[in-house]
UniProtKB/TrEMBL annotation:
Domain of life: Archaea
Keyword match DNA-binding: yes
Residue ranges constituting the Core-binding (CB) domain according to the UniProt record: 1-84
Biological source species: Natronorubrum halalkaliphilum
Taxonomic path: Archaea, Methanobacteriati, Methanobacteriota, Stenosarchaea group, Halobacteria
UniProtKB keywords: DNA integration, DNA recombination, DNA-binding
Protein name per UniProt: Tyrosine-type recombinase/integrase
Length: 315
């Protein structure tokens, strides 16, 4: 069995038991895995060993940040355990994989309200109503998940009533995390609506996706992708981008994190999930009721407390 065939069989078996988001994450990583195997001339899955797994980890380490690397190698280890259970690789191979826990600073990346406002001011001045400006603003203002933002259609935005509505549409490639339970209306401030209006009028690509739907956030190729949103957030949260300074004593002209593909390597760069957590914390710190915040961002109060999102707002 080839690495690709093994991964596809694994994904097919897992599909009934996991959420769409989990399946998407596993598929994304395993696609990188089988492409790497192909580049390394690994023809059959039973030929892999601990050195191959270590080499793949080293290659990924050059491309992604510490938290992403940890998440990806955790997925790969689950897959390798599945391979063991099917007799496709030697037993014990998964136990020998190195999956180092990211340190506390990496796991708790966040953006402060002051930094978020600085980023918004920069975008308003230099990239007004661009896709990057609008995506960052909506994620910060609403605290919604990346998948929810991507799921929005043009008709889901109601400018006169100042809200967007979220719908679970798994059959057309825009599932929501908690399926129908994630469907809701999210109120928008006037400033956010004005920004969206200008984006739609001047910067939005007037295209449809593969299912004939009109996405709210688009590129020339159609609906904005998960990776595209991640890249925008990774890039704009680098201090060298929005403030032309580096708090990490790096030479900006020589730092590899200044390149588009390696933005996640900046210690200050954050992912959409970190931006969401920061937004939730900001809402709570402003005194909004926990129950209202939970409804707005599609989280239970219990989950927020378990993941320490409440911080000082709980104490």
């Amino acid at each position: 069995m080839t690495p690709k065939e093994a991964a596809q069989r694994y994904l097919k078996e897992r599909e009934p038991d996991v959420s769409d988001a989990t399946l998407y994450n596993h598929r994304s990583l395993l696609r990188q895995w089988w492409q790497w195997c192909d580049d390394e001339d690994i023809e059959y899955i039973n030929n892999i060993d601990g050195f191959d797994l270590a080499d793949f980890r080293l290659d990924r380490q050059l491309e992604v940040g510490e938290v992403t690397l940890y998440n990806q190698m955790t997925v790969l280890r689950v897959f390798v355990r599945w391979l063991q259970s099917r007799g496709l690789v030697e037993n014990g191979l998964a136990d020998g994989m190195t999956v180092a826990q990211p340190d506390d600073a990496s796991r708790n990346r966040k953006v402060t309200p002051e930094t978020a406002q600085q980023i918004l001011s920069f975008l308003e001045k230099y990239e007004y109503a661009s896709l990057r400006h609008t995506v960052f603003a909506v994620l910060w203002h609403t605290g919604m998940r990346l998948g929810a933002l991507r799921a929005l259609d043009l008709d889901d935005y109601h400018p006169e009533e100042h809200y967007v509505e979220l719908h679970h549409r798994p059959d057309t490639d825009t599932p929501l995390k908690n399926q129908e339970h994630s469907e809701r209306e999210v109120n928008l401030a006037l400033w956010c609506c004005s920004l969206l209006d200008d984006y739609i009028e001047g910067k939005r690509c007037d295209v449809t996706d593969d299912y004939g739907r009109s996405p709210l956030f688009t590129t020339e190729q159609g609906r904005v992708s998960h990776s595209n949103v991640r890249d925008h957030v990774n890039q704009i949260t680098r201090p060298c981008d929005f403030a032309n300074e580096c708090p990490h004593d790096r030479e900006i002209t020589e730092c590899e994190a200044t390149t588009r593909l390696h933005a996640a390597r900046c210690p200050s760069s954050i992912a959409p999930h970190d931006l969401r957590r920061s937004s939730v914390t900001h809402l709570l710190d402003e005194g909004h009721r926990k129950e209202l915040v939970a409804d707005r961002v599609d989280l239970s109060v219990k989950t927020m407390e378990e993941h320490s999102v409440l911080h000082k707002a709980v104490s």
